[in-house]
TrEMBL record:
An example molecular function term from Gene Ontology annotations: metal ion binding
Protein name listed in UniProt: Haloacid dehalogenase-like hydrolase domain-containing protein
Superkingdom of this protein's organism: Eukaryota
UniProt similarity note: Belongs to the HAD-like hydrolase superfamily. DOG/GPP family.
Length: 347
């Protein structure tokens, strides 16, 4: 797994950036490769706390956007619990001949979540692959698209209400570092948003209980799965947030926990850090700026070099273009007949 060293996030501290200096998230001008999380320096530069709010309007980082499930709270085991209780409540049997209600084990659920994502898409995919179930909702497996969607809606609604009860029980706490990072960002004049693919009512309940009403109502933008037509990994939710915040994608920093969320962020041309969970720890996060086991060591001390390096996305595209050219030269050199090699490499 990638380094878990401290991440320096930009806060617009007054400094001389006329020359690029080597740091944990910004490469010197002589180096062209995009930094891998595994090569981050173990001892990042730090700035003095009193300057956190200084000159925030000139900072490259203007908005910090959090996912909810997996980032603000580690919730996948709670969702799995609620799904299994819903399957038992409606006596969902898949296959139909099964003597017991459907039950998703931990390892399988992690794979399903990381592969498919959102709640209804998970059930829809599972039933298409394994056969539509019998249940107390439909004694026989539903045959029409309308009945199948009704089945999924009823199960999902019951599951959502059960999940809310679990959250309201008070047994769930935010992940380490989340509240402090949000407060630091607000104090530095950086906009704070939450973008979750989950059902809006369940996300609202989570945020009210875990962030507190003051932080929740102080968010500059809040979007849930109900607010956009396409779920992650589609970048639509982040593109919508960028528009609502009035901040360009290159000036936003996304905090995600999974490769699906990372793809959504980079698809919106937003740099992203990943705070992985036990269920996502083995995923490939090479497109992230950095990866962390939690946010307790991620701070906003004062170096905004990374996002000041003339555009994260443009630099990434230049690296990809250089890689493509190197591969083309290798193909040319490895083939018999230079003309045919050039044609195939460039075609």
């Amino acid at each position: 797994m990638a380094s878990t060293s401290h991440l320096i996030l930009p806060t617009g501290v007054r400094a001389d950036f006329s020359r690029r200096r080597e740091g944990p998230l910004c490469l010197p001008a002589t180096i062209r490769n995009f930094p891998s999380p595994r090569r981050l320096l173990p001892h990042p530069l730090r700035a003095s706390p009193p300057t956190l709010a200084a000159a925030s309007t000139t900072s490259s980082l203007q908005a910090l956007i959090f996912d909810c499930d997996g980032v603000i709270l580690e919730s996948e085991h709670l969702h799995r619990q609620a799904y299994n209780e819903a399957f038992a409540h409606f006596s969902v049997r898949c296959p139909v001949s099964s003597p017991k209600p459907l039950y998703w084990g931990s390892d399988f659920y992690d794979e399903l979540q990381n592969r498919i994502g959102g709640g209804k898409p998970k059930m829809r995919w599972y039933f298409k692959e394994n056969g539509w179930p019998s249940s107390s909702i439909y004694a026989q497996p539903p045959l029409t698209d309308s009945d199948r969607e009704t089945l999924i809606d009823v199960i999902q609604d019951w599951k959502t209400e059960r999940y809310k009860e679990i959250i309201k029980s008070g047994a769930v706490e935010p992940r380490p570092g989340v509240l402090r990072l949000m407060d630091d960002a607000k104090g530095a004049g950086i906009k704070v948003a939450v973008c979750s693919a989950a059902t809006k009512s369940s996300v609202v309940l989570c945020l009210e209980n875990l962030l507190g009403l003051e932080r929740f109502h102080g968010l500059d933008c809040f979007l849930a799965g109900d607010d956009v037509k396409e779920k992650k990994p589609s970048p639509l939710i982040y593109l919508t947030a960028s528009e609502k915040l009035g901040v360009s994608g290159g000036n936003c920093l996304v905090v995600e926990d999974s490769v699906i969320g990372l793809q959504a962020a980079t698809g919106a041309r937003m740099p992203c850090i990943v705070t992985y969970t036990s269920s996502t720890a083995n995923q490939d996060f090479k497109e992230a700026i950095a990866t962390y086991s939690d946010l307790r060591n991620v701070s906003l001390p004062a170096a905004d070099r990374e996002m000041r390096c003339k555009g994260w996305w443009e630099r990434k595209q230049r690296v990809r273009e250089m890689k493509r050219k190197r591969e083309s030269r290798w193909m040319i050199a490895s083939r018999d007949g230079r003309g045919r090699g050039v044609e195939e490499a460039m075609g």
